[in-house]
Protein backbone atom coordinates (compact mmCIF):
# COMPACT_ATOMS: atom_id res chain seq x y z
CA UNK A 1 0.00 0.00 0.00
CA UNK A 2 2.81 2.35 0.90
CA UNK A 3 4.53 1.68 -2.43
CA UNK A 4 1.31 2.34 -4.34
CA UNK A 5 0.82 5.71 -2.61
CA UNK A 6 4.43 6.60 -3.24
CA UNK A 7 4.08 5.73 -6.92
CA UNK A 8 0.90 7.81 -7.30
CA UNK A 9 2.52 10.72 -5.43
CA UNK A 10 5.46 10.69 -7.82
CA UNK A 11 3.14 10.58 -10.83
CA UNK A 12 1.12 13.47 -9.45
CA UNK A 13 4.22 15.56 -8.83
CA UNK A 14 5.49 14.78 -12.31
CA UNK A 15 2.14 15.75 -13.82
CA UNK A 16 2.05 19.00 -11.86
CA UNK A 17 5.62 19.72 -12.90
CA UNK A 18 4.77 19.10 -16.54
CA UNK A 19 1.75 21.40 -16.31
CA UNK A 20 3.81 24.09 -14.63
CA UNK A 21 6.45 23.81 -17.34
CA UNK A 22 3.80 23.99 -20.07
CA UNK A 23 2.18 27.04 -18.43
CA UNK A 24 5.57 28.74 -18.16
CA UNK A 25 6.36 28.06 -21.81
CA UNK A 26 2.95 29.38 -22.87
CA UNK A 27 3.41 32.47 -20.70
CA UNK A 28 6.85 33.25 -22.11
CA UNK A 29 6.00 32.21 -25.67
CA UNK A 30 2.76 34.21 -25.72
CA UNK A 31 4.51 37.36 -24.55
CA UNK A 32 7.36 36.92 -27.01
CA UNK A 33 4.90 36.41 -29.89
CA UNK A 34 2.89 39.56 -29.10
CA UNK A 35 6.04 41.67 -28.68
CA UNK A 36 7.77 40.31 -31.79
CA UNK A 37 4.80 40.69 -34.13
CA UNK A 38 3.97 44.27 -33.11
CA UNK A 39 7.40 45.88 -32.74
CA UNK A 40 7.46 47.13 -36.35
CA UNK A 41 4.20 49.05 -35.86
CA UNK A 42 5.24 51.04 -32.76
CA UNK A 43 7.15 54.34 -32.65
CA UNK A 44 8.59 55.82 -29.46
CA UNK A 45 8.69 59.53 -30.41
CA UNK A 46 5.53 61.50 -31.38
CA UNK A 47 7.24 63.13 -34.36
CA UNK A 48 8.06 59.67 -35.73
CA UNK A 49 4.56 58.25 -35.30
CA UNK A 50 2.77 57.40 -38.52
CA UNK A 51 0.00 59.87 -39.40
CA UNK A 52 -3.63 58.74 -39.28
CA UNK A 53 -6.90 60.60 -39.49
CA UNK A 54 -8.00 59.25 -36.10
CA UNK A 55 -6.00 58.56 -32.97
CA UNK A 56 -7.42 56.33 -30.23
CA UNK A 57 -6.56 57.36 -26.67
CA UNK A 58 -7.04 54.61 -24.08
CA UNK A 59 -8.63 55.59 -20.80
CA UNK A 60 -7.14 55.34 -17.35
CA UNK A 61 -7.88 57.02 -14.06
CA UNK A 62 -7.05 60.71 -13.69
CA UNK A 63 -5.82 60.00 -10.16
CA UNK A 64 -3.81 57.27 -8.46
CA UNK A 65 -5.19 55.22 -5.56
CA UNK A 66 -3.14 57.38 -3.20
CA UNK A 67 -4.86 60.51 -4.48
CA UNK A 68 -2.03 61.88 -6.60
CA UNK A 69 -1.97 62.77 -10.28
CA UNK A 70 -1.71 59.70 -12.50
CA UNK A 71 1.41 60.19 -14.69
CA UNK A 72 0.16 57.62 -17.22
CA UNK A 73 -3.02 59.64 -17.78
CA UNK A 74 -1.16 62.91 -18.29
CA UNK A 75 1.45 61.31 -20.58
CA UNK A 76 -1.34 60.05 -22.83
CA UNK A 77 -3.02 63.46 -22.89
CA UNK A 78 0.25 65.26 -23.57
CA UNK A 79 1.13 62.95 -26.46
CA UNK A 80 -2.38 63.11 -27.94
CA UNK A 81 -2.38 66.92 -27.83
CA UNK A 82 1.06 67.01 -29.47
CA UNK A 83 -0.11 64.76 -32.31
CA UNK A 84 -3.07 67.07 -32.94
CA UNK A 85 -0.84 70.15 -32.81
CA UNK A 86 1.59 68.60 -35.29
CA UNK A 87 -1.33 67.56 -37.58
CA UNK A 88 -0.35 63.90 -37.37
CA UNK A 89 -3.93 63.07 -36.40
CA UNK A 90 -7.06 65.07 -37.17
CA UNK A 91 -9.41 63.57 -34.59
CA UNK A 92 -9.18 61.74 -31.27
CA UNK A 93 -11.41 58.92 -30.05
CA UNK A 94 -11.34 58.97 -26.25
CA UNK A 95 -12.31 55.51 -25.05
CA UNK A 96 -12.62 54.56 -21.40
CA UNK A 97 -14.68 53.30 -18.50
CA UNK A 98 -17.91 55.01 -17.42
CA UNK A 99 -19.78 52.29 -15.54
CA UNK A 100 -20.90 54.68 -12.81
CA UNK A 101 -21.80 58.37 -12.71
CA UNK A 102 -18.93 59.01 -10.31
CA UNK A 103 -16.24 57.55 -12.59
CA UNK A 104 -15.91 58.88 -16.12
CA UNK A 105 -12.60 58.39 -17.91
CA UNK A 106 -13.67 59.79 -21.34
CA UNK A 107 -15.02 62.99 -19.79
CA UNK A 108 -11.79 63.50 -17.81
CA UNK A 109 -9.77 63.02 -21.02
CA UNK A 110 -12.01 65.45 -22.92
CA UNK A 111 -11.55 68.16 -20.28
CA UNK A 112 -7.79 67.73 -20.13
CA UNK A 113 -7.35 67.79 -23.91
CA UNK A 114 -9.64 70.78 -24.26
CA UNK A 115 -7.52 72.53 -21.61
CA UNK A 116 -4.48 71.72 -23.72
CA UNK A 117 -5.99 73.47 -26.73
CA UNK A 118 -7.64 70.64 -28.66
CA UNK A 119 -10.91 71.80 -30.23
CA UNK A 120 -14.10 70.10 -29.09
CA UNK A 121 -15.02 69.15 -32.66
CA UNK A 122 -11.82 67.09 -32.81
CA UNK A 123 -12.87 64.92 -29.85
CA UNK A 124 -15.26 61.97 -29.72
CA UNK A 125 -15.97 60.13 -26.46
CA UNK A 126 -16.55 56.40 -26.17
CA UNK A 127 -18.13 55.65 -22.79
CA UNK A 128 -18.04 51.85 -23.15
CA UNK A 129 -14.31 51.25 -23.51
CA UNK A 130 -14.27 48.97 -20.49
CA UNK A 131 -11.14 47.14 -21.67
CA UNK A 132 -8.52 47.29 -24.40
CA UNK A 133 -10.43 44.67 -26.34
CA UNK A 134 -13.74 46.53 -25.98
CA UNK A 135 -12.17 49.80 -27.10
CA UNK A 136 -10.82 48.30 -30.31
CA UNK A 137 -13.88 46.18 -31.10
CA UNK A 138 -16.06 49.28 -30.71
CA UNK A 139 -13.62 51.37 -32.77
CA UNK A 140 -14.20 48.93 -35.62
CA UNK A 141 -17.90 48.10 -35.25
CA UNK A 142 -19.37 51.24 -33.69
CA UNK A 143 -17.12 54.07 -34.87
CA UNK A 144 -16.41 52.33 -38.21
CA UNK A 145 -12.64 52.85 -38.16
CA UNK A 146 -10.47 50.99 -40.64
CA UNK A 147 -7.23 52.71 -39.64
CA UNK A 148 -6.06 54.39 -36.43
CA UNK A 149 -3.06 55.48 -34.39
CA UNK A 150 -3.11 54.04 -30.86
CA UNK A 151 -1.87 56.27 -28.04
CA UNK A 152 -0.85 54.72 -24.74
CA UNK A 153 2.19 53.57 -22.73
CA UNK A 154 4.97 51.39 -24.18
CA UNK A 155 4.07 48.46 -21.90
CA UNK A 156 0.44 48.56 -23.09
CA UNK A 157 0.92 49.23 -26.80
CA UNK A 158 2.03 45.75 -27.96
CA UNK A 159 -1.18 44.18 -26.67
CA UNK A 160 -3.34 47.01 -28.04
CA UNK A 161 -1.70 46.90 -31.47
CA UNK A 162 -1.94 43.11 -31.57
CA UNK A 163 -5.67 43.14 -30.78
CA UNK A 164 -6.37 45.92 -33.27
CA UNK A 165 -4.61 44.22 -36.14
CA UNK A 166 -6.18 40.86 -35.35
CA UNK A 167 -9.59 42.57 -35.47
CA UNK A 168 -8.77 43.80 -38.96
CA UNK A 169 -7.95 47.45 -38.20
CA UNK A 170 -4.82 48.95 -39.74
CA UNK A 171 -3.37 50.24 -36.46
CA UNK A 172 0.02 51.55 -35.46
CA UNK A 173 1.18 52.67 -32.02
CA UNK A 174 2.56 55.89 -30.60
CA UNK A 175 4.31 55.62 -27.23
CA UNK A 176 3.08 57.97 -24.51
CA UNK A 177 5.63 57.49 -21.74
CA UNK A 178 6.72 59.79 -18.95
CA UNK A 179 10.54 59.55 -18.75
CA UNK A 180 10.39 60.35 -15.04
CA UNK A 181 8.17 57.36 -14.21
CA UNK A 182 9.44 53.86 -13.51
CA UNK A 183 6.99 51.06 -14.24
CA UNK A 184 6.61 48.79 -11.22
CA UNK A 185 6.94 45.02 -11.35
CA UNK A 186 3.26 44.49 -10.42
CA UNK A 187 2.13 46.46 -13.47
CA UNK A 188 4.58 44.60 -15.69
CA UNK A 189 3.44 41.22 -14.38
CA UNK A 190 -0.21 42.13 -14.88
CA UNK A 191 0.48 43.19 -18.46
CA UNK A 192 2.43 39.99 -19.19
CA UNK A 193 -0.56 37.98 -17.99
CA UNK A 194 -2.96 40.17 -19.99
CA UNK A 195 -1.04 39.46 -23.21
CA UNK A 196 -1.46 35.74 -22.74
CA UNK A 197 -5.15 36.18 -21.86
CA UNK A 198 -5.55 38.20 -25.07
CA UNK A 199 -4.51 35.18 -27.13
CA UNK A 200 -7.28 33.23 -25.42
CA UNK A 201 -9.77 36.02 -26.10
CA UNK A 202 -8.95 36.02 -29.79
CA UNK A 203 -8.37 32.35 -30.59
CA UNK A 204 -9.98 30.19 -27.90
CA UNK A 205 -13.16 31.46 -26.26
CA UNK A 206 -14.14 34.10 -28.82
CA UNK A 207 -14.59 37.09 -26.57
CA UNK A 208 -17.29 39.64 -27.39
CA UNK A 209 -17.32 43.29 -26.22
CA UNK A 210 -19.43 44.07 -23.16
CA UNK A 211 -21.58 46.53 -25.11
CA UNK A 212 -21.73 47.53 -28.77
CA UNK A 213 -24.86 49.43 -29.72
CA UNK A 214 -25.64 51.07 -33.04
CA UNK A 215 -22.94 52.36 -35.42
CA UNK A 216 -21.78 55.95 -34.86
CA UNK A 217 -19.26 56.67 -37.63
CA UNK A 218 -16.78 59.46 -36.92
CA UNK A 219 -17.29 62.14 -39.55
CA UNK A 220 -14.17 64.07 -40.49
CA UNK A 221 -14.05 67.31 -42.49
CA UNK A 222 -13.90 66.59 -46.19
CA UNK A 223 -10.63 67.37 -47.89
CA UNK A 224 -10.49 69.11 -51.24
CA UNK A 225 -9.81 66.69 -54.12
CA UNK A 226 -6.14 66.57 -55.08
CA UNK A 227 -6.90 67.70 -58.65
CA UNK A 228 -8.29 70.95 -57.20
CA UNK A 229 -5.38 71.51 -54.82
CA UNK A 230 -2.59 71.07 -57.38
CA UNK A 231 -3.67 73.89 -59.75
CA UNK A 232 -3.80 76.39 -56.89
CA UNK A 233 -0.33 75.33 -55.71
CA UNK A 234 1.03 75.64 -59.22
CA UNK A 235 -0.38 79.15 -59.50
CA UNK A 236 1.08 80.14 -56.11
CA UNK A 237 4.63 79.04 -56.95
CA UNK A 238 4.59 79.90 -60.62
CA UNK A 239 7.32 82.31 -61.74
CA UNK A 240 6.12 85.89 -62.35
From TrEMBL:
Stretches assigned to the DUF218 domain: 56-193
Domain of life of the source: Bacteria
CDD domains reported in the protein's UniProt record: YdcF-like
GO CC term (a single one): plasma membrane
Keyword field: Cell inner membrane, Cell membrane, Membrane, Transmembrane, Transmembrane helix
InterPro entries linked: Cell_Envelope_Assoc, DUF218
Subcellular location: Cell inner membrane
Membrane topology term: Single-pass membrane protein
Function, in words: Participates in the barrier function of the cell envelope.
Listed name of the protein: SanA-like protein
Phylogenetic placement of the source organism: Bacteria, Pseudomonadati, Pseudomonadota, Gammaproteobacteria, Oceanospirillales
Amino acid sequence: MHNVLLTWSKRLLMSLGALLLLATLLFIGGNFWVLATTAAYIERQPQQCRPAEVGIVFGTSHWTRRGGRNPHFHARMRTAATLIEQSQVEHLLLSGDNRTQAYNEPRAMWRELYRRGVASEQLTMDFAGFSTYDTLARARDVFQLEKALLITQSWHLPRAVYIGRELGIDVTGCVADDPNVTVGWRLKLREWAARVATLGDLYVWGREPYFLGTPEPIELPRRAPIDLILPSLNERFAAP
